[in-house]
Amino acid sequence: MAGFAQLGLLLLALAVAYRPLGDYLARVYRGEKNNRFERRLYRLLRIDPDSEQRWTTYAAGVLGFSFVSVVFLYLLQRLQSLLPLDFGRGAVSPSMAFNTAVSFVTNTNWQSYSGEEVLGHTVQMVGLTVQNFVSAAVGMAVAIAFIRGFVRRSTNRLGNFWVDLVRGVLRILLPISFGFAIVLVAFGVVQSLARGVDVVGLDGAKSTIALAPTASQEVIKELGTNGGGIFNANSSHPFENPNGWTNLIENFLLLLIPVSLTRTLGVLVGNKKQGYVLLGVMGVLWAGMLTVTWWAEAHTSGPAAALAGANMEGKEVRFGIPASALWAISTTGTSTGAVNSMHDSFSGLGGGGALLSMLFGEVSPGGVGAGIYGILVMAIIAMFLAGLMVGRTPEYLGKKLGTREVSCAAIAILAMPTVVLLGTGAALLMPGELGKALTNHGAHGLSEVLYAYTSAGNNNGSAFAGLTVTSDWFQATLGIAMLFGRFVPILAVLCLAGSLARQRKVPETAGTLPTTGPLFASMLTGTVALVAALTFIPALALGPIAEALA
Amino acid sequence: MTSQVIRTFLTQSAAGLRVLLVLTVLTGLVYPLAVWGVSRLPGLDTKAEGSVVQRNGHPVGSAQIGVDPVAKDPANDPWFHNRPAASAEGPLGPADPSVSGGSNAGASSPEQIAAVRARKAAIAKREGVVPARVPADAVTASGSGLDPDISPAYAELQVPRVARATGLSPHRVRELVAEHTTGRALGVLGEPAVNVLELNLAMRSIM
Fold first, then answer.
1. Residues of chain B falling short of pLDDT 50
2. Which chain B residue shows the shortest CA-CA distance from A467?
3. Which of A505-531 are b and which e, b meaning 16 or more Cβ less than 10 Å from the residue's Cβ?
């Protein structure tokens, strides 16, 4: 019962924030005025905030910015021993530094390292906290540019990437993060520059408890759907997530922007119902997966869990099963990947629910920005399929969907399955690598590998962490999967935006399929489910389904 | 064409580097240090530094971090015990709080079945009960390996032994357990939990 009330409270908080935040985001990106601080900043950066870019320049901005970010973050880690507050943790190995740099720049935050053992506070703050902000702002910028493609007519300009990026950080992410960071400290999250505190326990045993500047990173880790914990145990660590309050706040923060962006879409396209219907589809997928995982975890399955009496392995007493299931589906449905319990120790079906949540392409409700552009691409595919059935050129949000648009959409949705299946398949052909990497064997071992490439390809970052991914082979292939999973869809989406913006608006006629009703909602839900099912059922049957039936 | 693409990419990268450096100062230095600064305020500072618990002026642990205490004489064990940790050497504890993490063992893994069985037997022997009475949280490793809490059921299981070893009445020990049991926040968030370090500390202070 308390579990359901907890769910209700989370939904209530999201409902209260939905309108004001969604409207505010629309104002931020639509506004033409820059405040005095921003004007000075643009002068310092030698950027003309009033010049607008074609899609190619906008895309070059995204790629160029991400490229220098990877290089900068790689160098920071490699040179860690020269930086203050590194506590002798020393330079990070080349393959791990590459993987981590790519991981944080692509908003994945997959972690092949153990935070409190490998990274000092300087790299955490100056390297990782920064990417937590900017990778989220990049996602929002791309989403907004895409929406402008629908809104604008007969133009080849999509806006200015640098302005969208800076506004996302300064006007949205920073103020919310600062406020909630203080709230989290008040509820017991640590914010320390010390390495740790030495204690002598009641039994006389000496130990050192690790500390870190946690609250400042914890907030943006959830708000930006990043997910990379400062501690190895992520949000199950009591210093990141000490009680029911912080757990609710963090779970709320990781859903906040992806959910509210549907309102922003509605405001920007001038028809709020267009946003509500997408939110409805996201909600249905989220609720479906939540039901599967919650039920599976609550009804003890798997011989080890049955022997123990409940599926509590990898879960914290203060959260219990309902709050762990709720978090697991929120973190995999968005591109967050932060965990408050260990997904690898979930039951076959429970872990399978989290996996499928990602395999939907992360649109329930998806990452910051990535969720809304992901579901819009799915909507284009759904309208294309509908158009085929009735023999009409499909339209969506007042724009015609021709060959170029549908091709771009197809590339955007195929990038993820390609890297997931090729990556998993290649790893399974490497018995030497698997022998060293797997904690679990049989069907669950296959799930561990499938989960890893799914998480990387979707820029999620959560893990069936029993898989040891520190070998050069895993570091490199997972790094490449993250790059493809992030930038192929972004390029396709921006190309799509460019060609939509050039069109005139198609007037609505009696023959236009309405995209605000239940018919469209079920078609879109069906398309998301169908694409995932056709692509992944064979792999899922060998992993989680086989385990659940065993 | 190609040279123009490369030129656009390079100009944008140069702008990107400038933007990155400025945003690094703002979000990587100013922001975390500002949060750190505010967290120095009285009331926030002890939490920001890890909610360290003192006894006779010496730090004995953090109220939020569970490290299983070890009894000098296992036959006369006065401690309430934490949950098992994946990082521990033996089947039960204690964990090393400078690292964190779970076992990641699956619910069908043979190693996990063996671990649960071993823990069940060890705890049943320690508490002098049949294995079936040992609750789930007692025989499973937490996600963090540092779970500060145990379920009220696991605390209740330990009451008779702790009472025997400390010479307190079971009734008094139960009172202390109740005092250190946190219900669900707002009545709905999370699960009821007993903070083991604070409970053991309270036991010490009245003995």
1. none
2. B104
3. eeeeeeeebebbeeebbebbbebbeeb
